[in-house]
Write a structure and sequence with these properties.
Blueprint: E1 4-13, E2 16-26, E3 31-35, H1 42-49, E4 57-62, E5 65-66, H2 71-77, E6 78-81, H3 93-103, H4 112-122, H5 135-147, E7 153-157, H6 165-180, E8 184-189, E9 200-205, E10 208-213, H7 215-220, E11 226-230, H8 234-243, E12 247-253, E13 256-261, H9 267-276, E14 283-286, H10 291-303
Parallel strand pairs: 3-8, 3-9, 6-7, 7-8
Antiparallel strand pairs: 1-2, 1-4, 4-5, 9-10, 11-13, 11-14, 12-13
Length: about 300
């Protein structure tokens, strides 16, 4: 049995179709990532799965229970961290945790072993109001509150947005530890670099799934030769690379531009082209495709 299943799910807000015929399943104990930019439909899918939204069409289930018919049962079996910090700002760390434990008819002591590794990092601030915590500390408190009733499935909607890189890494390490305890984790993020921390991922854009597979398989499926290119004028370089007849696509990638080619070609041909365009300090190297490259390729194929 799958812990999460979406079958032909559709959801619209007026004329905007936020989710389009999504089919997806997540196995028990899996760390699954929903990867895509803002506005791709991630939060709508999360709200459907956590029984906060009713789909316009299709069915969704969590732990074998229908999200519409069995919403009360599901709410006792899941933990949910929404993208925006939603705990009580005026309550202390300790008060928030005790409140959520009481809501689920349990106590902090009863499930302390599950949150211990996370809570000890914020325990020195247990009497501080939640609204006065740093971004990373807020996320750790929210995670503790989502786990305090020992859920079977944990939903985390963009848990690292607005969080510093160190706290981002710490949170993903925590998720890895939770996975070892048998909790199914469903995480969304706009950060492609976080995709590699998942067992499987789904790439989503404009409400439609582009691919569902392991991060390694998605990266290795990149279909074209790929180069990383630099010059003394990066802004003009991007336009000139996109205008090159042998270019399939080109986009900014860190301090370089990633250039996907229509076919295998000698690098000297590109050097000649760019020198003729007046570029200097040109650097061209082979690039190893990653999740973001595959996402851009799939998006281009989807649009075409």
């Amino acid at each position: 049995m799958n812990d999460i299943r979406l079958t032909h799910i559709r959801k619209s807000y007026g004329p905007v179709e936020a989710v389009k015929e999504v089919d997806l399943s997540v196995s028990p104990g899996e760390l699954f990532g929903l990867i895509g930019p803002d506005g791709a439909g991630k939060t709508t899918i999360f709200r459907i799965l956590t029984t906060l939204l009713i789909p316009d069409a299709g069915t969704a289930s969590v732990c074998g229970y229908d999200t519409v018919r069995d919403y009360k049962i599901i709410r006792n079996k899941i933990g949910y961290m929404p993208g925006r910090f939603s705990l009580y700002q005026d309550l202390s760390v300790e008060e928030n945790l005790n409140f959520f434990a009481t809501v689920f008819h349990t106590t902090v002591a009863e499930n302390y072993d599950l949150i211990k590794d996370i809570y000890i990092q914020i325990e020195p601030f247990k009497r501080r109001r939640a609204g006065k915590l740093s971004g990373g500390m807020k996320q750790k408190l929210a995670l503790c509150c989502a786990l305090i009733h020992r859920p079977s499935v944990l939903f985390l909607d963009e848990p690292t947005t607005g969080v510093d890189p160190v706290s981002r890494n710490e949170l993903w390490n925590m998720l890895g530890n939770l996975k070892k305890q048998g909790i199914t984790l469903f995480v969304s993020t706009p950060y492609m670099d976080e995709a590699s921390r998942c067992d499987r991922i789904a790439l989503i854009q404009n409400g439609a799934l582009l691919s569902v597979d392991t991060p390694a398989n998605i990266s290795s499926s990149f279909p074209r030769p790929l180069w990383k290119v630099k010059s003394g004028d990066m802004h003009r370089l991007l336009a000139d690379l996109r205008a090159w007849p042998l270019a399939y696509s080109c986009y900014a990638f860190g301090d370089t531009h990633h250039l996907a080619l229509k076919q295998e070609v000698e690098k000297s041909i590109l050097y000649d082209y760019l020198r003729a365009k007046g570029h200097i300090d040109i650097e061209v190297d082979t690039a190893l495709p990653g999740i973001e490259d595959s996402f851009m390729a799939l998006l281009g194929d989807h649009v075409k």
